[in-house]
Amino acid sequence: WPVASWSSIDYHGRWKALHYFVKKAFQPILVSPVVRDGFVDTIIVSDERAASDGWLHLTLWDFYGKILWKRQLDVSIPSGSSGSFFSIPEEELLRFGDRRTIVLEAVLSVEGGRTVSNLLYFALPKDLVLPEPQISWHPCNEGADFFAQVSANRLARGVYLVMEGVDGRFGDNYFDLLPGRTVRVQFFPRENKKTPDGKINIYSLVDCSERDKD
Asked: What is the pTM for the complete model shown?
């Protein structure tokens, strides 16, 4: 029944934000930078049965795409483990900018070509000083599959794609887009269509700010 609830899929079978986040949370390997006891710890969790080697890339960005700090290190990840692989005092990172305008990106590349990533913000979403991003997209077809290539010139927090006129879902949604990055998102129509006829509308968290309600 179409009501407000804690469900992750709506009445029509469309994925809500929760469903996308749960899908990501159940990946076999995760990387998560977190703040605890005054330190930024980069946690790696592995549910795999075999150990693996990889490379951890940490980059501190401002919301306009400027790199403020970065670090790269090799990591050996035990099977079925969870632990901190890098730690740095939070104040050392905050020397590079206002906590409301910077974000730490953690990217873990694991042997075999797999990559997982996560972002750490140093302020609550309501306190972030988000810029007005210019988000653009371009269609891309591979056989019968349709993709939208999405990019932004500034940080776009909580990017939400809506396909108008065609029922279906995107392979990813409600994601954060760093400046200058291009993300390719597949659309899965319910009907067997090679190229959806609809229009894609794109929103981000800045569209919900008080200044946009005036």
From this structure: 0.90
